[in-house]
Amino acid sequence: MSGAECESDMDCSGSDCGDAGYEDYYSTQPWDGEIDNDINFDKQKQDPEYAVYECLRVDEVERLLNENVEFLTTNLQITPSLAKLFLHAHEWDLQDILLKYQDNTSNIMIDSKIILSHSVDPLFNMKFLKGNLCSVCFLTFPTERFSTLNCGHSFCNDCWCAYFETQILQGVSTGIRCMANSCSILAPEDFVLSLLIKPIMRERYQQFVFRDYVKSHPQLRFCPGPNCQIVIRSKELRSKRVICSICKTVFCFRCGMDYHAPTDCDTIKKWLTKCADDSETANYISAHTKDCPKCHICIEKNGGCNHMQCYNCKHDFCWMCLGDWKTHGSEYYECSRYKENPNIAHESVHAQAREALKKYLHYYERWENHSKSLKLEEQTLEEIKLRIQKKVMNASGTWIDWQHLFEAASLLARCRYTLQYTYPYAYYMEAGPRKELFEYQQAQLEAEIENLSWKIERAETTDRGDLENQMDIAEKRRITLLKDFLEV
Amino acid sequence: MATNIAAQRIKREFKEVIKSEEVSLYLNVAQCSIKVELVNDSCVELKGEIAGPPDTPYEGGNFILEIKIPETYPFNPPKVRFITKIWHPNISSITGAICLDILKDQWAAAMTLRTVLLSLQALLSAAEPDDPQDAVVAKQYKEQPEMFHQTAKHWTSVYAGGPSKMPELDEKIKRLTDMGIEEHNARDALSSYNWDLERATEQLFS
Fold first, then answer.
1. Are B131 and B99 in contact (CB under 8 A)?
2. ipTM of the complex
3. Contact A159/B106, CB-based, under 8 Å?
């Protein structure tokens, strides 16, 4: 049976997700393949990564949002624009809005920045409107060329229009306020559209409004894939793995970053920031500096000579072995005493800093390495495809006979991905029995993954049963680790 | 179209500011005055001037402002900074950059240059040390208000033509200039270190 269809059916309850299609059958994406049908059984309990969500197109999202708007317009007898202001201000929580509206209508109007809590300064309009003077452009117009929001501040239509255009060009849409001093009243959609003239501006405004609505809706997330229009909907805001049905981008629903189990959203953010900030510097310090063996000051080697003299304490030493230079004489190229700094027990601040750096680099290098391996395995998949093609041409089996290799490759990718994300988790873990357990399971997973990788590369000579057995073991290790340590 | 509105607005605003200045002269409170003039004919760059408000260390000083009008004015705020050096928690003692909400997200199109200058005058009367532009000044303002007052008064007298002379502070600056330090640098360092001659020297020679 098709692994691709199987996975889509389980993960997406949306209407357009099920038809991953026959043409995808032979071009299995790393995330599409589901191998072991035993795992499908009672998914929610068995699989800590199980998630319910749907992938919506823009028109489907619009329909969803409009349903909410219509619900309010019929129940509260208000205009759609007003309903949208309520919804945007209350994170699209219909029940919350209904309760507040029934409780105190003017309070919810004030909270949603629709009306002012106090009446407008009577001087404002007296000063300007007597002479039909617009206080933005200082020009006079007939009364019918003025417009005003609920706050009562009146300005000429040309100024409103120019103001909206500048705001839209700066990306502001639902947040456009009245033009009067310290007036926080928001301009509703119908008001803006009644005054905006240029079609391109109207279009852009509506796009931005839609974007703001999706962003303010707790159940909706834009797919972070480049140029992807899909919006993911999940009823629970948790750090679950979601896969875009169109561009196949895999990401965490809660934070929108690359999926990161077993690490949580805050930790992965901290880790990625640390990597972005530190990696270059840290690598440089590690590669180019050592501590003086005598005074422990940090020294950068900026020349080729290994005979170093500390600028601080004037101690002469060998860069290679950190031993006293006197013992080297002229045969320092024979220096083979490359061992631990004998003075390491006497730890200076610099040595401690280096120790911290070493710890970070230990995790960072493994993180980086698995990330690179994942990319390399995409190539492996291509090679497998070619190899299968050859076999089919030589009539040694059919496509169907070799299908399990794709499944193995996609499972390998999934396991390695999880393995990669165990390193930031371990880095931030406090030492103790739980960390020991984690690192034990991590090591087990790593070993099984390398076994699997070895067997896939030699697929022709490996027994199919043996390979599938190895796949099962690796996936079980992965699930066990996630079950024990994934908190969502 | 936007440029048109900007130029129109500036021209119309000139009349407004001039009018209000006449009123203040008439009431004989000239020290409260504000002034705006064109730098060239373009209406893009203006020069503002505000008088230090009474009962503040800025009293008696005249502070020059650089005002740049963006093309999208009045829908975006003018860019304003102090040309005259000033010692104030919300104004950078180095660049003259100003931290004031109406020059950022609280700007409204119905505000004018007059509103801006009056708000700046109000800022000189009532600093907001919890939202500082210059952290060193803000720290001094909060922890050593008397020292802050003296320093601000001294800066007003040196840079803005204020009346008070402070011989003991001038003496400290002279000690440093005698060592070959440039006068402004000496004043910056001493002000930042609460007029502690030793620490200022240390910082200047480190």
1. yes
2. 0.82
3. no
